Amino acid sequence: MRYRRLGNSGLEVSALGLGTNAFGKRADQDVSIRIVHHALDNGINFIDTANIYAGTESERIIGLALAGRRHEAVLATKAGLPRGKGPNERGSSRYHLQQELEASLKRLNTDHVDLYQIHTFDPYTPLEETLRALDDMVSSGKVRYIGASNYAAWELMKALGISELRGFARYAATQASYSLADRTPEAELVPLCLDQGVGIIPYFPLAGGILSGKYSASNKEPIGSRANTDPSFGRFLEDRYLELSEQVGKLAAERNVTPSALSLAWLMDRPAVSTVIVGATRTEQLDENLRSVDLELDSQTAGALNGISEPFRYGKPFAIYRLP
């Protein structure tokens, strides 16, 4: 396994991270625990979850999986997206964040999280309130590092400016949709992160599985796929993404690698990327993704991937999650 610093922090994270959105949904408890153990056994130390994944089941299962092995994991979770219908069950207020952190710690069966991330920008709460609350969490020892997610470049820069002005803990990383099917972060977010020393953690690195080659124009809902188990995912299955997937598949076949490994290797080589989080619903799928770590792209392959994905540098992101 290769390890990289998370932004300009001193924290080392595996180049490939484990996303756990499927735990408690498409992967049951026993399978999910096996996946976590398999990840740790293969050098993956970055495990990413959130307080809303599978209605909190993801965090609970990870807490079970890390019993006796907590010291091997860089554990990341998030808060900020709606947890309920109440007026204080969403957002980045001190009230909500403190409440959610305590609940996450109990489910995760730990006294601290290594990276606590704001799941999306909150336009209704002053940034200074959010950042002061996060700084207090770091000072308390319950949080080691802090991060953002789904922030626009200007929102992230404003947060960094406030932290520097007030002497607060600083965002070490930011999560964004980033893949061959979504290169929109390269316009503003990537240059900002390079300048400010913030690590990028791409989510949907395989465009929800589209770049794995499992979907096609004739089969948009393979059995067991995200589209098959989550009808709302169908909105992502646009022809342009399926056509890109076909092109990636051809390049992969010519090089005797899987489309997933090729797509992930490309993303790992992008500037400012610290770790790439990929979900799994079985250990075999994790093994397939692990091949990307040792895959070195030659200039011809990298150039071909850049060429076919060029149109996806512009327009709307593949995905972004914001408060209503």
From TrEMBL:
It holds the Pfam family Aldo_ket_red. One of its GO terms (cellular component) is cytosol. GO terms for molecular function: oxidoreductase activity. Residues 16-308 form the NADP-dependent oxidoreductase domain. Keywords: Oxidoreductase. InterPro entries: AKR (IPR020471), AKR_Detox_Biosynth (IPR050523), NAD(P)_OxRdtase_dom_sf (IPR036812), NADP_OxRdtase_dom (IPR023210). This is Aldo/keto reductase. It comes from Cohnella cholangitidis.
